[in-house]
# Entry
Amino acid sequence: MGIQANTSMNANALCAWSSAKDEPRWLLERRIRALELAGTLELPKVEKIKLEKWDIYESGDFKAENAWSGLEDAPEVVRGLVASPVEGGLIVQINSDVVYTELSADLAAQGVILTDLHTAAKEHEELVQRYLFQAVKPEEHRLSAVHSALWSGGVFLYVPDGIEVEVPIQAIFYSDTSGAVFAPHILIVTGNNSKISYVDHCISRRDDIKVLHNGVVEVFAGAGSKVQVASVHQLAAATTDFTQRRAVVLADAGVEWIVGEMNDGYTASDTKTLLQGNGSISDAKVIAVGSGDQKLSYTTQAQHFGRSSVSQMITRAVMREEATAIINGITKIEKGATHCDGQQTERVLMLSPNARGDANPILLIDEDDVTAGHAASVGQVNAEQIYYLMSRGISRSEAEYLVIFGFLAPVISEIPLVGVRSRLQDVVEKKLGRSQGIRANQSEAYEG
# Structure
């Protein structure tokens, strides 16, 4: 029997999994508290979405996987996402379990840590205890508590003070079976004046099996550090995706979010940056394509506490067929956060009369001496643009594709990671029904 996301959760299964992973006592106690809390909390409030009608109640059972001796053990869908050889680091999770971890000897010698979160809780206990669930707290709502109780596998990435990592760290989360907990937790901690780029792919392939992906990303950027977090989600139609991303940014540090939402199933994501330090920076870019009868909610937030902090949020979404999207942009400037600058843009392009898009820019300003602005638009494909291209001998389908990609290109072109930019273009093409799908040439997938 699966673990239910309500008061009937199976605590025995949770204890057995924690014991099998040899987790420290404090971590099991946190899990149990979160399990009890989950039965008392309401579901998260998602604007104009009835989350209680989604398939979010069955979290599944923990499933141990055999560790890989090398990447030759990986299924083809995973091998196609990995640059070979791995230059920086790589971690792969299948269902509930991490099966492969690799970190270059050079980075390890500099004190960089890359491991699954279970191992980190034992071997780097002080660091994990200090940061785990400090950005996304279990008491926020029921699904936060469920995740806090049931997370499995996951990533712990630590970069010491002054260390600049020039090659991306990669992670792959792959769901390929029924009844397995799929709730990875990513914890990234960077020291002062450090630099790191982290890239992950979250994928599933079964359209006949219901799966809940309940994922969390926590980033803690030390003073003066620069952190890039890129994530491409490509989950099957039967997979419900609920993802929370949160960054805490100290003085003169910067966090850049690059998110590609290319799922085929229902999706709710919330990406938020807490600009705690003076001169801190947040830059969030979100690209989304919806199709079929998908229900989608994408929220991007920046909360300014530090003086002279800067946030930029850009979301562009394309809705096909009968897909529905709610796009929320929230800029909050707290009292005392003088000389801040918060900007946001949300744009939705609808390709069908049955598609729906709702862009909601929100500015919450509690300080006078600031700069803030927003822009939002929702509209159909420009018929004149299609007609013009067709008059030049281009087919309707090709003309529509060119218009769509022209709509997304201003954001995609700003993505500094070449591999992520290339991968996003491939996934967009596949999502739009382009026959070439994923490009054959993956050898350059993680350059830059």
